[in-house]
Amino acid sequence: MTDPHGVKPAPGPDQPPIPVRLVTYNTHHGVGDDRRHDLPRLAKVLAAADADVICLQEVDRHFGERSEDVDQALLLSRALDMQLAWGPAIDEPRPGDGPRRQYGNALLSRLPILISDVHPLPGTGEPRSALRTLVELDGGALWVTTTHLTTRSADERAAQVALLRGLFEDPMATGVVVGDLNAAPDAPELAALQEGFHDAWELAPERDDQARWRFWQREEGLTHPARSPHVRIDQVWVTPGIQVAGARVLDGAGASDHLPLAVDLLVPSGV
Length: 271
Prior knowledge:
Elements: E1 18-26, H1 39-49, E2 53-61, H2 72-80, E3 83-92, E4 101-109, E5 113-120, E6 129-137, E7 140-148, H3 154-166, E8 175-180, H4 191-196, E9 198-199, H5 200-203, E10 207-208, E11 234-238, E12 243-249, E13 261-267
Parallel strand pairs: 1-2, 7-8, 10-12
Antiparallel strand pairs: 1-13, 2-4, 3-4, 5-6, 6-7, 8-11, 9-11, 12-13
């Protein structure tokens, strides 16, 4: 909005919050519940979400036959005409001069990406990481951290969450932690998030999911497994001050073994 002289108001606490639609989705490297790798199908699901920021887990880049050895992150960013930030958890050389074999988290954004860095997470077994980005808003900025926590143990998840919490040491930092946390929102190992952040699903005054006829599970935000979800492990956590206008679990059209979660954020202006 501008004044009668065409001057745009300066960002600040007196200005309305900035709407941002964010989606988080574990893509299962583009392999759906029919066991087919179908990247165009996945791209259609993401396009239909009409999101400003899309946070993806289990993304392949030249990983091998399971995903036709393609660069999924780059192809999805081009298909959706969105900027790309990449955060590998697995990063291995290949014989010869071919591209590196990578697997991890990706962020696609309609908004300008100002900063992007990758933070390895502690733990054993499959390597895990967090992709932290700063996206520019019209009158503000938002930190977005995308991750995929371990399945090995609650203790290892707790150590990983402690590192994630440490990325928000600045009390003025405004942002979100999103992804497949492999734990329920009230799990003890998520204590560091529970203490410093708010669960976006619980904040949302309007909620919808894919329970449909399962009336006893309506509005629970269940995301996995996609065909008959019974756990809420795909989550969005927001710092104090960020409002949530709505949250809904989307129809994944069989593109993954998870369902995508969309949240409509209202981010304070001028932060």
